[in-house]
Amino acid sequence: MKKPAPAAPAAPTEKDQLHPRNPHRAPYDFPALSKASPELAAFVQPNKFGNLSIDFANPAAVKALNKALLREFYGIEYWDIPKGYLCPPIPGRADYVHYLADLLADSNGGTLPPGQDIAVLDVGVGANCIYPIIGRRAYGWHFVGSDVDGVAVRAAQQIEAANPSLAGAIEARLQPARTRIFDGLIQAGEVFDLTMCNPPFHASAAEAAAGSQRKATGLGTGRAPRPALNFGGQNNELWCEGGEAGFIRRMVQESARRPTSAYWYTTLVSKKDTLPGVYRALKTAGATDVRTIGMAQGQKKSRLVAWTFLKPPQQEAWRKARWHSPR
After folding, report:
1. Which of 132, 226, 268, 270 could be cross-linked to 143 through a Cys-Cys bond (beta carbons 3.0 to 4.6 Å apart)?
2. 3-state SS class at 174
3. This prediction's pTM
């Protein structure tokens, strides 16, 4: 008799701060960052409260800030993205990585497995390659980063090639089918300890444009929509048919077709209302364990959902074979 899937996990504990190991918990030290990256200095000026800051509605300023943060905290000397591509806020991206490290440790009796042995698949790596950079520099993980956009793949490859600290640790791989996630990407016999994804948020280009306008209003610009607002983003980075809920549903379905290709499949879930549908899809797919981990940066609340199809004996075999540290 088939064992029923576990009940939907309880709601995550609400948080209001970044992960304790996240190095970006303190306010930005703009004098120190400008010293490390002189390009940033041109954008730093007192804000209306008299504190040093930048105009976060200015894409060039945000890009300069990211370059400074990557240099100061991660030793990345070269980082660039094509015009109009997503320039993500690094503190929140780092949080996802640190909570994944906690998930691995919890799965291994409280001990984080050796970094060089951990393989991670970043679905939608983007031209910015942020998750692999942080995961490699913070924990020594090896990454495959997938994307449906050839320009993004080449940009990520260029970042890896230009930084010795990333050499051989990141493979940017083109997903040839734009409507697929794992199908046609994960190779025969290939396994990952973790997969991660920040799925497209919106369901249409019009919805994405409206979201950009709301963001501009929130930043206090009061201006009409521009082609690229602060963090930018291409269509495939911002929206897809079915939006976040549809993308994650497809991800769950494809993961169920390869239950032993990953120990933990994970994704960010930005909209709380998306969670019930995700839990239903995971129950239907037969996930043996589902976990929801709350995340926050100030007023912005998010969460990641992780699931596995491995039964306890398979989990034990995985730890012995790959992590060298059985529970």
Report:
1. 132
2. strand
3. 0.87
